[in-house]
Specification:
With 116 residues, the protein is of the alpha+beta class. It is built from three helices and seven strands.
Length: 116
């Protein structure tokens, strides 16, 4: 499945939360995370499928985090979505082991495709 959307600026607190889940994430995926997310505004709402969950009790958070593997620009990454997120359902956050904006020279409103 392919999703299309535009790169958008986020709220700015992702690094705090990524640091909290990094050990759990590494144990599950063997990926060391970059402390931030890439926000994508999709053309239409998207509900995660075939995801796994990081429970709030596991990382000392207030919400469970749902994780789904994806690819962006042929780079393995993951869509993450907190339960009861502040984002609309057409916004997804992508995490990876690199700063995706920098690596692929992505600016706000750049069109990208995500493979699920």
């Amino acid at each position: 499945m392919e999703l299309k959307g535009k790169v958008k600026k986020g709220v700015g607190d992702a690094s705090f939360w990524v640091k909290k889940i990094e050990d759990i994430f590494y144990k599950k995926t063997n990926m060391k995370l970059f402390y931030g997310t890439l926000n994508i505004e999709l053309e239409k709402p998207y509900e995660l499928k075939n995801y796994w969950t990081i429970k709030k009790e596991e990382y000392g958070g207030t919400k469970d985090v749902y994780v789904q593997e994806c690819k962006i620009l042929d780079k393995k990454a993951y869509v993450v979505r907190a339960e009861k997120t502040v984002h609309k359902s057409n916004i997804i956050e992508i995490i990876s082991d690199i700063k995706l904006r920098e690596k692929f020279n992505l600016e706000d409103n750049c069109l990208v495709q995500i493979e699920i």
